[in-house]
Queue: 2 jobs
Job 1
Amino acid sequence: MSPQTVAPVPIELILDAGDVGDARVRPGGRWVSAIETQPGEKGSSRHLRMWPVRAGGDPGAPVDLLVDPEPAGTGGLSGGVHAWHPNGRHVAVVLRGGGVVVLTIDDDRVVSVLPLPLDPSRTWTGPEFTADGRELHLSADWSEIVGLDTETLESWVFHDGSDFAIDPAGVPGGVSLAWDKPQMSWTESRLQPSVVRPGVSVQQPRRSPDGTAFGWIDDANNWWNVVIEADRRGSRVRLDDASDHAGPVWGPGQRTWCFDGDGSRVAYVRNEDGYGSLWVLDRATGVRSRIALAVHGCLSWEGDVLAAVRSGARTPPQLVAYAAVTSPEGTTTAERVILCDTAHPRWRAAHESVLVEPEVRRTAGGIPWRLHRAPRERGVIVWVHGGPTDQWTVTFRPRITLWLSRGWSVAVPDHRGSSGHGRNFRDALHGAWGIADAADVAEVLDEVREHLAPGRVVLMGGSAGGLTALAVAAARPDDVDGVVVSYPVVDLAEMLRHEDDFEGHYMPTLIGERDPDSPLLAGRGPLGHAADLARTPILVFHGDMDHSVPIVHSERLVDAVRAHRGVIEFVVMAGEGHGFKDPVSLRREYDRTEAFLDSVLSRRRRSRRRDRQGVAPRGFEVARPAE
């Protein structure tokens, strides 16, 4: 398809995106189960299904295990919803409406559904059976690890007193991931009941299916790398690698590494500037083999079947199975079978030209960013991820594709504080949120202006990304043609006052101040630069039920910008929280954003500064913290 005939991706196709997550190989290796999410007019529906793994790569038809009641949902490439008993005849499933059930399976039929005597009003995640099948371990309300006897159904609490406790490993004693305020999982965490190691982030405790091997991931050497405890197969080993093997733990169920059935091999992922690859270590020889490219998650291994969820810029989420075979020399090869592909046929049929792989770039100051280049470029969107401890890895992102098809290239910066580049890079944002991140995005903006943009440049961001986008727009009003923000952080003093259960205690670390009345905060947020923001058109979306970043942030922004006669459009999403889910709300968001971007293209361009070399953004720190 030529650049002149690029077909705009219809919004209906974006809303019609399916998903698959929480992959698990059923003991025996003949089936792979997962949670498949299917879109609908009134929202998505979820199914627990399993697919046969057949020789020759012919995926058979899936079998529905649980449709009504629905299983709980999965987030991105995570899981924590279901787990198989070692005998392969029972599977524990967390329900969407609350509670946990155990299904009994006879070959490929569900013969009974047993509700477990667990309080359905609590939030249950991460079910894991012990290797002998005698106990089921779960996380309750992200704060307790509960054990349940699979014969008597009696339950007990393993640990009490941690502020957060998730991801039980299914080992005696209820080992799990835990951390306490004021830390976050990525600043300092532990495998309870062990003692915390100061300044070390730990995650994903995991045993081999037979229970003989145990390991985890930590960042004691700056990178989130797999660590394997000493066992019958050898002494403790760390897979030292200048690459993260995981992302930040924002919730339960991340599985970016696993053992095979007897613990002799380890599968793990690598983050390579946002791209991903899948590797296998043979513990006997120490040989590491790359078996696949693309971002993988939800790893599970039984026998020679390694299952995962796979995604890439051109690849919607897929449930895949690898037939992993290791030679006597330790080299592993794998043949991939696609069991479930969520790709809508219209992506390939009509929109192949806008399914593009991004280019990895770095600014002169060393800030990494990725450029998704539109076939027919009219402008560039500099899109800042949220978090701020996060990263947009190179997975399928229909929102990006939507704007690519309308002539907008998309630049995605990894500013300081982003994950995927090691501990030192993440920690470099501490005390400088809204300053260091904005300075880094401004560097990307300069490169976009200097080398790419034939048309307009628009900043976008949600939540923490909204704060960064607004800070850059305030500092560089002559270089920005428009700003689109969703549920943005605007008032840093309000963030210090706001008692968010999950990360409110983390705000002083990010901001570098505990007192919300401190005069040091006066110029730190967008409210202090409303006169500069008023020089650029702004579109703001916010849900009126947002408890993470309350709508008062956007209301104050709108009032401040309008007081300086700025043009700012405010769209309130009724009934929505931190992130929009209702298809009606999403359509409204896309429609209003498209109209805003069209107005940016039609607006007369203002004069630009020609020489930006050596000019620091107003209010930004130029020097970077020492690593």
Job 2
Amino acid sequence: MRVTVQGDKVIRLQGDPDHPTTNGALCTKVSRYAERTEHAERVLRPLKRVGPKGRGEFVEVSWDEALDAIAARLGEIAARAPEAIVPYSYAGTMGMVQGEGMAARFFNRLGASRLDRTICSSAGGDALAATYGAKVGMHVEHFAESRLIIIWGSNSIASNLHFWPIALAAKRAGGTLVCIDPRRTETAEKCHHHLALTPGSDGALALALMHELIVNDWLDHDYLARHVDGWAGLRERALAWTPERAGAECGLAPGQIRELARLYGTTKPAAIRLNYGMQRVRGGGNATRLIALLPCLTGAWRHRAGGLLLSSGGWFAAFRNQKLGHPELLAGRTPRIVNMSTIGDDLLRETGETMPDGRAFGPRIEALVVYNSNPVAVAPDSRQVVAGFSRDDLFTVVLEHFLTDTADHADYVLPATTQLEHWDVHASYGHTSLVINEPALTPRGESRSNAAIFRALAQRMGFDEPCFSDDDLSLARQAVVDAVPFEQLRSVGWFQLPLPEAPFADGGFPTPSGRVQCDAPGIGLPDYLPPYESVRSAPELARRFPLAMISPPARNFLNSTFVNVKSLRAIEQEPVLEIEAADAASRGIADGDEVRVFNDRGEYRCVARVSARARAGVVHGLGVWWRKYGVDGTNVNELTHQRLTDLGRAPSFYDCLVEVERAA
């Protein structure tokens, strides 16, 4: 991103035209980043709560007063039970410096609970690691040369904008685009084929594709023999999944499955752009494993424009400083792990309570430090989350730019800098270059970077280790290994990782054996796991709540980020539920009606959009709106549950049954 500044004011914001992936473009959301930075409602001074939790009533205080009070409270808790302190963070700031750099040092030294950061991608990430050995895949730019691209679980136009021009280049060159998604997204509309499968049935579809590849002998037997372990067992499992059987699970015609298999088995090079939408269900990890094995069956990896890309994040492991957070500060302690996806239940647990997996929970959570996240809006089962955050005895500190739903429940809100105001270094999960983030503006008001805030807290708490004196530029230098020329990184803006063009043309996967693992150690062969909640897997529940609901992000929001940017909220207008015409008519619902969406967990009111984007039996609660902007002070996560995926301990956001009726 290039920022042009005049007099400490942004006058132009654009994608870097020299970067091979950004190529001069920014998505609609990030193009409004200056508006977000200069927002009139931005928190610019430390705030102390004076009203009831959740009301957002604060007074301004000095940094000294806020830091002294926070350090005193955390110190008192840490002296008794440091694990009663829990950090909560995710990808609001994705850099190594302002993410988990100084923050990790602080919480390691404190001995606080560790956070299992699972809310977005851990099911798919663990699945790739089990199959390929790491989160690795194709170079995104090589999709332009693919003759077939399957876009699976991704609305690229809305959420992967820099991939879409590459896909269009392949299309213009005669390539075929296929979209697999329950929703007829903007992306699906522009592809040659769209398979609108039912939510959570992706694994069944992948097995049926394998079935057709086998029976038609569209296999690369040499690649399988040389580079894949456990194929015989998976072959036997796949042969049981005819297109008829999978079609019944997926809500697809068997002919659609056969045609997709024919395309994939006979077109070279063929590539799959997999994304994280499809892994937010009970069987998401197994489905990811099955899809990741498809290019191994056909030998698609032999071509630089063949294979699969879910995440390129694993390529960066060798170039990141894995000790940036100074794990030695734990001094031999192994604090408990709290899963961010079950924070609703965990905030309400008592000391020593038995967890669902049989473990003792440990000490009750007494303090929560939230940064780079808005859990009251984004975590599943929000009724429970709100109840936890509303506890009078919970001490909550939030580092933020705005008074989000989470900040409204804080005891102290500390003003943080935006990306335009601080140093950082970013890895990627969509391309293969490290990126430097230099400050373009002076911090607005009294805002401080996350690293500076944790550095100041460490000083207040008497942490005198030298690593707590590192400034943000020093942290940026330390974030990468010596193989990355830091001054070159600064002068160019990015550093392209030195990787082969066709990374697995001759095997060499980052597994212990160098071979793909069908039968992964400790996990076994992948299989189709039906959703927790669906018409086929939970018929009794479906009699009361017959509609499957997915909750993909609204096009102009990034999860809950940008919801308060007025120009973007004006485009989205209001929280909506997309519903298919016959499903709406049978319930007496017309386009524009206010509706009540409900299940046993809660209810959510929004506006119905009768839409061809929805297939029969499936509704779309577009999110993630801040609760305070909702019709009744809730959002779509009032309906989602805290049950976890098969791998990665991740939330099952898109594994959810509901009913819909016109609001009274």
